[in-house]
Design goal:
This protein is 38% helix and 22% strand. It is of the alpha/beta class and 482 residues long. The strands form four sheets. Strands 1-2-3-12-13-14-15-16 form an eight-stranded parallel beta barrel, surrounded by ten helices.
Length: 482
């Protein structure tokens, strides 16, 4: 059974460069724990084929593999241009409108009437990832007149950002709704929502998923940063998507925002991914820049559950090398004494429930005695997530009879997920934990583990037992009936 030698997880996006079985298997063996299916690219047939490969690989590797489907969201794009790309000069006038005619150097179509209604004089429009900046001088329900503040080349269907306006857009486009239903029926584990602005966006998606996938909110709008506490409460996980966030906010504000969002996620025990441009240069280079390595390391030092590769693994020339490099950085950071000091200094002290008290006690026992692992029995995943929040020094084995729970938990920091048979007695739970620990190479018969579980069994959120147990089954059974 394959065992990772790090706690942080790696998310690899699949695409044209990584769509066949050998490549996806190589990505997994190099260190990818979660595979992201980007619904902005590829047909449903493409997505289905990649999902089937992952599930076949899961059987071969005898290890749960997590699948994340990322919805496109209401991305704003301009129309096309009659004569190809146009140069917008600083100080020039430019109009966005609803006309169907192809654009030119003075205007272009923006097919979103609701945007014009929300704009006002002084609003900022950013084009092509912020390379072009325009300020609104006048608007109506059918157009916005602007002055170019920062010029540049504008061309067909370039993305447009409106950083200082809460956009009156539906959280899910018609395409998103169709994609959502498709991937939920397919059986993905996580659903990522793009351009979330408010908690209601998450609630709407949850109503549509009906429990078929966990909900991850991507934080890539200033409005989402302002409403983060409410969005976090409504979500199962968070992705700090720094691409559009870095366009719509001053780039120098990103590091403290990232640190704050990661810390808040850790406090409530919900997974958080740091994403976008982590190793961007490896799209075309076999080695990253030193700055990219430091960026990945910083996210790991902060305690993020996962770090993500986008185009690097989906469309780059070196997808395997990108995963390998990211994994090596993670191992190096986690071996650093300063990493452990940072993690412990930022640990959440809250013990508001029996489950939280049990997981905190399990960590303390593991750190003051010579145990090799903490084994958590979980149905819903809550106990394992709480154990992950504690960030113990020893490995965490999450045991569950539910394959869907095991797959979903694979994205969470430090969890080595194992599908185990249903048990009725705590003693058999301990036996199964001992077997899983030995099979995973965590210890031998002479070693001990910490086991947490809830009695009665098969009841979500009932964790109420902690035991230090030997890995020797004969000694477990010699302990008397339970």
């Amino acid at each position: 059974m394959l065992r990772r030698n790090r706690n942080v997880k790696i998310v690899a996006t699949l695409g044209p460069a990584s769509s066949d079985y050998p490549t996806i298997k190589a990505l997994f063996e190099a260190g990818a724990d979660v595979f992201r299916l980007n619904m902005s690219h590829g047909t449903h047939d493409d997505i289905r084929a990649r999902h089937e490969i992952i599930r076949d690989l899961e059987v071969e590797m005898e290890r749960p593999i997590c699948v994340l489907a990322d919805l496109q969201g209401p991305k704003l794009r301009c129309g096309t241009f009659k004569n190809g790309p146009e140069m917008l000069a600083e100080g020039a006038a430019f109009r966005f409108d609803l006309q169907d005619a192809p654009g030119d150097g003075t205007r272009v179509r923006l097919p979103h009437p609701e945007i014009f209604a929300a704009l006002e004089a002084g609003s900022t429009l950013l084009v092509n990832d912020g390379k072009i900046r325009l300020s609104v001088t006048d608007r109506s329900d059918s157009h916005a007149d602007c002055v170019v503040e920062v010029g540049g080349e504008i061309s067909d269907r370039k993305g447009i950002n409106v950083p200082d306006v809460l956009l009156p857009l539906a959280a899910l486009s018609d395409k998103d709704r169709k994609d959502l239903e498709f991937v939920c029926e397919l059986g993905v584990d996580w659903l990522a929502l793009s351009f979330v602005q408010r908690a209601q966006d998450v609630i709407e998606a949850r109503d549509l998923t009906q429990g078929r996938a966990a909900i991850m909110s991507k934080i890539e709008k200033p409005a989402a940063v302002r409403a983060f506490d409410e969005i976090l409460d409504a979500s199962d996980a968070i992705m700090v998507a720094r691409g559009d966030l870095g366009v719509e906010l001053p780039v120098h504000t990103l590091p403290p925002i990232q640190k704050s969002l990661v810390r808040k996620c850790r406090r409530v025990g919900k997974p958080v991914i740091v994403a976008t441009q982590m190793m961007e240069s490896m799209i075309s280079s076999p080695v990253p820049t030193r700055a990219e390595v430091s960026d990945v390391a910083q996210a790991i030092y902060e305690g993020a559950d996962a770090v993500m590769l986008s185009a690097e693994s989906a469309a780059g020339d070196y997808p395997i090398e990108a995963v390998t490099t990211m994994s090596n950085v993670a191992v190096s950071v986690e071996e650093d004494d300063i990493y452990r000091q940072v993690i412990e200094a930022s640990r959440t002290p809250s013990k508001q429930s029996v489950g939280e008290a049990i997981t905190a006690a399990a960590r303390e026992v593991a750190e003051t005695t010579d145990v090799k692992a903490i084994c958590c029995f979980t149905h819903s995943g809550t106990t394992a997530s709480l154990m992950s929040r504690e960030k113990p020094k020893v490995p965490i084995i999450a045991l569950t009879p539910k394959p869907r729970t095991a797959r979903r938990l694979t994205m969470t920091w430090g969890l080595h997920c194992v599908v185990t048979p249903e048990v009725e007695r705590f003693k058999m739970a301990v036996v199964n934990a001992a077997r899983a620990a030995k099979a995973g190479g965590f210890g031998e018969d002479t070693d001990f583990i910490v086991v947490t579980a809830g009695v009665p069994f098969n009841t979500p959120g009932s964790t109420n037992i902690l035991r230090v147990a030997p890995l020797d089954e004969q000694k477990i059974f010699a302990g008397g009936p339970e």
